[in-house]
């Protein structure tokens, strides 16, 4: 006998699927490609029952140059704008009653060398599971994006859903740790990728992730920085300001660290003016990470 809560979960999953299809149609109407990432896609691909993948919003990536046009097209179709950050080049809308987050970078601007343009270039076109022609990110690009996303939340605050997604991706026969390591090194995020692999092994009991450590060279790319992260990232304590600053220093290249920190400062200044309560919560570490 079907339980009411099962029907509710199925309906919620279907609503998010429909909301993403609406974003695709809006983009197609103006020639703007979009990518589904995180839960809205992984629920359909990696779970026997998509309703088992908990999520509260729909994550979409678009090119930075397309964001303004996509937002305008969405508003013309009746989307309700909830948030907009010029510093982070992102926006959030209510689409068919579902929250959709439109972002244009992998992590904060400047944080990762993997661009949405590169992800789109390697993406492949599908019809299912959304019922409309759409692009899906290449497997290793998607995995690297999930790694960056988990790390920017200091791992201790990362959503459980994203970490489960990573574990399930690594079980696929076409998944390759050497390819993922190469993407991480090319994108300038090898050091943080090493820490996420360690976290998967030690905290998530996923021993297969030792293959990524081996592919990254068998030793931490930045040992002193990694040691500092381990000292500050404690699951029993809320993330400190020192840990947040250390996370912003995660990119392998100095220029990337500078750009990531500048974007964060710009976001905080913008939020102090437009959303002061949110700015204080983020800095104080009181904003809970939601499943995505």
Question: What does this entry look like structurally?
Answer:
With 292 residues, this protein is an alpha+beta fold. The chain has two domains: 1-137, 2-Layer Sandwich (Beta Polymerase, domain 2), CATH 3.30.460; 138-252, no CATH class. 53% of the residues lie in helices and 11% in strands. It contains 13 helices and seven strands. The protein has a five-stranded mixed sheet, sandwiched between helices. A hairpin with a 7-residue loop joins strand 6 and strand 7. Helix 1 packs across helix 3 (67-76) and helix 5 (139-152) packs across helix 7 (177-186). Mean pLDDT is 91; it is low at 286-290.
Structural class determined from secondary elements: alpha+beta
CATH architecture designation of the largest domain: 2-Layer Sandwich
Domain tally: 2
As for the CATH topology of the largest domain, it is Beta Polymerase, domain 2
Strand content: 5-15%
| CATH top level assignment of the largest domain | Alpha Beta
- Tell me the number of helical segments per DSSP (H or I, 4 or more residues long): 13
Report the order of strands and helices.
HEHEHEEEHEEHHHHHHHHH
Count of DSSP E strands? Answer: 7
Overall 3D form: globular
Straight-line N-to-C gap = 30 Å
Largest sheet: 5 strands, mixed
**Biggest sheet, strands in spatial order?**
1-2-5-4-3
Radius of gyration, whole Å? 19 Å
Give unreliable regions as ranges: 286-290
């Amino acid at each position: 006998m079907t339980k009411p809560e099962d029907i509710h979960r199925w309906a919620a999953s279907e609503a998010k699927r429909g909301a993403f299809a609406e974003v695709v149609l809006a983009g197609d109407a103006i020639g703007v490609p979009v990518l589904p990432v995180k839960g809205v896609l992984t629920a359909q691909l990696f779970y026997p029952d998509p309703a088992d993948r908990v999520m509260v919003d729909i994550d979409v990536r678009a090119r930075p140059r397309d964001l303004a046009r996509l937002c305008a097209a969405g508003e013309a179709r009746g989307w309700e704008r909830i948030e907009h950050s010029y510093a982070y080049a992102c926006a959030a809308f209510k689409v068919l009653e579902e929250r959709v987050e439109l972002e244009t970078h992998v992590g904060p601007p400047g944080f990762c060398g993997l661009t949405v343009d590169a992800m789109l270039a390697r993406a492949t076109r599908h019809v299912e599971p959304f019922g409309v022609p759409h692009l899906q990110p290449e497997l290793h690009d998607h995995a690297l994006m999930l790694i960056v996303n988990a790390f920017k939340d200091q791992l201790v605050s990362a959503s459980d859903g994203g970490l489960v997604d990573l574990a399930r991706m690594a079980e696929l026969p076409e998944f390759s740790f050497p390819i993922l390591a190469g993407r991480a090194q090319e994108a300038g995020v090898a050091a943080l990728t090493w820490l996420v692999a360690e976290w998967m092994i030690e905290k998530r009991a996923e021993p297969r992730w030792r293959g990524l450590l081996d592919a990254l060279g068998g030793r931490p790319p930045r040992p002193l920085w990694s040691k500092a992260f381990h000292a500050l990232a404690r699951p029993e304590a809320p993330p400190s300001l020192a840990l947040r600053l250390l996370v912003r220093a995660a990119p392998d290249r100095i220029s990337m660290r500078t750009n990531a920190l500048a974007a964060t400062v710009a976001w905080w200044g913008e939020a102090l003016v437009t959303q002061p309560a949110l700015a204080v919560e983020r800095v104080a570490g009181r904003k809970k990470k939601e499943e995505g």
